[in-house]
Design a protein that fits this description.
The complex is a heterodimer.
Chain A lengths: L4 E3 L2 E4 L5 E6 L6 E8 L3 E9 L2 E5 L6 E5 L5 E5 L8 E8 L8 E2 L3 E5 L1
Parallel strand pairs in A: 2-11
Antiparallel strand pairs in A: 1-3, 3-8, 4-5, 4-9, 5-6, 7-8, 9-10, 9-11
Chain B lengths: L3 E4 L2 E5 L4 E7 L3 E9 L5 E6 L3 E5 L2 E6 L4 E6 L8 E9 L8 E2 L3 E6 L1
Classes of the chains: A mainly beta, B mainly beta.
């Protein structure tokens, strides 16, 4: 089975722009979670989707949003980018819930200038 | 929310040495996972271990849920074991699950 894939792998944006990141889960997995990793804050939970519904959301401003499609692929969007949004964004998939083994993608490195 | 503490924060080993990495958590958990993050950022799941002991090659893990800690053992370490090791937990009694990560343990294995 192919693993979790994320696109793009690297991205450079400027302040005020918006960005969309994509995640394709392992085939058959329906739960997709997103995490932000920064040197200062570590790995922080953004949100989790299942069957096109957001089931859980972390403590991030409304500029961070996401969605999931009927094929379980997920996107996250960050609007009005700030310097502090520079981070590694990781996507993880599991069969039904994050309570099971989670498999991570390679991540998208976002640099905001 | 639940607190996850990992120790030591940094560890330097000579190739072939053994090590023990510790994860303490402040509440009871449904789910505990150990991950290894390689230098390119990829997180690899090592163990799903909310309780008990598991082994996979040179790695093994034990979680004592009643005492709220987990240990990851690395035997005969190799340079490819270098990277950051994370413990992540999902507390019980919470309607919607998510993983809360510790700050990680940076392991450097010298040849």
């Amino acid at each position: 089975k192919a693993g979790v894939t994320q696109t793009p792998r690297y991205l450079i944006k400027t302040r005020g722009q918006q960005v969309t990141l994509s995640c394709s889960p392992i085939s058959g997995h329906r739960s997709v979670s997103w995490y932000q990793q920064t040197p200062g804050q570590g790995l922080q939970f953004l949100f989790e989707y299942f069957s096109e519904t957001q089931r859980n959301k972390g403590n991030f401003p409304g500029r961070f949003s996401g969605r999931q499609f009927s094929n379980s692929r997920s996107e996250m969007n960050v609007s009005t980018l700030e310097l502090g949004d520079s981070a590694l964004y990781l996507c993880a998939s599991s069969l039904w819930t994050p309570r099971e083994t989670q498999y991570f993608g390679p991540g998208t490195r976002l640099l905001v200038l | 929310g639940i607190q996850v503490e990992q120790s030591p924060p940094d560890l330097i080993l000579q190739e072939g040495a053994n090590s023990t990495l510790r994860c303490n958590f402040s509440d009871s958990v449904n789910n505990l996972q150990w991950f290894h993050q390689n230098p390119w950022g990829q997180l690899i799941n090592l163990f799903y271990i909310p309780s008990g002991t598991k082994q996979n090659g040179r790695l093994s893990a034990t979680t004592v849920a009643t005492e709220r800690y987990s240990l990851l053992y690395i035997s005969s370490s190799q340079t490819t074991d270098s990277g950051v090791y994370f413990c992540a937990v999902d507390p019980t009694g919470v309607a919607n699950s998510k993983l809360t990560f510790g700050k990680g343990i940076t392991l450097s294995v010298r040849p």
